[in-house]
Amino acid sequence: MQQIGHWIEGTEVNGGDRHAEVFNPATGEVQAHVALATSDDLDRAVTVAAAAQPDWAATNPQRRARVLMKFVDLLHRDMDKLAEALSREHGKTLPDAKGDVIRGLEVVEFCIGAPHHLKGEFTDSAGPGIDMYSMRQPLGVTAGITPFNFPAMIPMWMFAPAIACGNAFILKPSERDPSVPMMLAALLEEAGLPKGILQVVNGDKVAVDAILDHPVIQSVGFVGSTPIAAYIYERASANGKRAQCFGGAKNHMIVMPDADMDQAADALVGAGFGAAGERCMAISVAVPVGEETADRLIEKLVPRIEALKVGPYTAGDDVDFGPVVTAAAKTNIHRLIQTGIDQGAELVVDGRDFKMQGYEDGFFVGAHLFDRVTKDMDIYTTEIFGPVLSTVRAKTYEEALGLAMDHEYGNGTAIFTRDGDTARDFAKRVNVGMVGINLPIPVPLAYHTFGGWKKSMFGDLNQHGPDAFKFYTRTKTVTARWPSGIKEGGEFSIPVME
Ligand code: NAD
Asked: Which residues are in the Aldehyde dehydrogenase domain (predicted)?
């Protein structure tokens, strides 16, 4: 059995007695054991990080960026290996696994611009003989806790800006798919990152709580489910740490009567069922406006959903989506589907009997489509995180907008229409962080920022883009006067510019 330890001080170290099983979701087999850190393991990583960080912070930002440049090359070199390891533990298809790596790599590329992003501001002659300037300095030892669904992208979204800014970073990845984060750490070492600047501490709540309580750790980034995001935000903040915590989602796609119905149906199928619906930006609720639109949309969706190909990543590019991550996730998705039926929704495409031939023990879930879902049903209020699309019929645009606005989550949303006025009104009024217009998954690119609103985000600064350089630095502002500007005698009232 493969044993996965921790990455500490530039090398893989064994864990202690506690471990978790890592499954191959396609076969249902346990393929590795991952170590679960104790608070002593975490403390060791922090001690190493704290010792290494000052030299890294003193390394000029261009040199730090060059390590990231080399890292990008190595990611390209090992792309197939990374994608295979990712698919084997997560279950997503190989092209989707490559996308996971590439969306992370793009943020690394953005962070190569650190020398520019870290430049401060300067005011010449802010007063008589006085200059004022600001600088962005690293926080010190920083940490991040990441979810299972993007084991390459989300760690890179955190550690690339953190280390580009001169911090040390401790990553606590998901215990479901820890191999890729360990591979990323090894590649950064190969790229020339000094030991101790990026470390991986595998684990569960014990490791997370040790991070939240450790006095040396200055900031915590979190991405995962909303209850844990809220918990981490509260505990990290109570301990005086800077925290940005991103939570779950229930993304609505509004389909207006004037939308191109084929385009809308294609978009819904990709965004609802890609990665088996295990994306925080998946569309899980379709909201057609008007009965006729709803009927036309359902008519287009049914054959598309029935034709979806489910399978293991090894089956090649023909597969649309793979298994869900664990047996427990599969059970929970089936439980929620049953609540939908019990509470009166119409199950238009029923994937409950889906069996993957030759992979009967895998965690496969067939595609499901519900119609006539209402606001009070569990399948509407809860994030299912599986291949289940719900349709809520709205009578008017205002009612559709209200649905997206009243939902407790506010990660992403989309509208499909040919009407510029409606699209503009929607983008302006909806209280959701990321909005797509005729585009179902509006994940901003690396140089913009990513973040939801409402219960999808706790904190203020978003991930990547310029916000990341703010989150991983603090501003120091210097007011300087040299002898020729100094007047004789003390000044006793607050200086103001007259
Ligand atoms: P999760 O909340 O179960 O786990 C996330 C991390 O928290 C893992 O590292 C895990 O070990 C840790 N954790 C779990 N339980 C904990 C506890 N009780 N105390 C302390 N730490 C704990 O999430 P997941 O199942 O890995 O990921 C799926 C969720 O992540 C979905 O809700 C999805 O919407 C969300 N997500 C959000 C975004 C975003 O940017 N908003 C992006 C990706 C995923």
From this structure: 17-478
Who's near 467: CB < 8 A, 6+ residues apart? 449, 451, 461
Rounded to whole angstroms, how far apart are CA atoms 254 and 143? Answer: 37
CA of 270 to the centre of ligand 1 (A): 23
Number of the ligand 1 atom closest to the C-alpha atom of 325:
25
- For the record, the structure tokens of 329 come out as 């996730």
Query: If phi over 0 gives left and psi between -120 and 50 gives alpha, with beta otherwise, what is residue 91?
Result: left
* 273 Cβ closer than 6 Å to some ligand 1 atom: no
Q: Which residues contact 234 (CB under 8 A, 6 or more apart)?
A: none
Report residue 490's pLDDT band, with 50, 70 and 90 as the boundaries: confident
Residue 255 Cα distances to 249, 268, 398, 416, angstroms: 19, 10, 12, 5
280 given a catalytic annotation: yes
Which of the listed residues 158, 204, 456 should we mutate to test ligand 1's pocket, taking the one with most ligand atoms within 8 A of CB? 204
Is the beta carbon of 251 within 6 A of some atom in ligand 1?
Answer: no
Q: How far is the CA of 328 from the centre of ligand 1 (A)?
A: 15
pTM of model > 0.95 = yes
C-alpha span between 229 and 231 (Å, rounded): 5
Atom 39 (ligand 1): residue with closest C-alpha?
246
- Running DSSP on this structure, what letter comes out for residue 493? S
**pLDDT digit string, tens, across residues 130-152:** 999 999 999 999 999 999 999 99
Phi, psi (deg, nearest 5) at residue 343 = -90, 5
Q: What is the ipTM of this complex?
A: 0.99
For residues 383 and 284, the answer to whether their CB atoms sit within 8 Å is yes
Q: What sign results for the dihedral spanned by CA atoms 466, 161, 278, 318?
A: positive
Alpha-carbon distance of 496 to 488, in angstroms, equals: 18
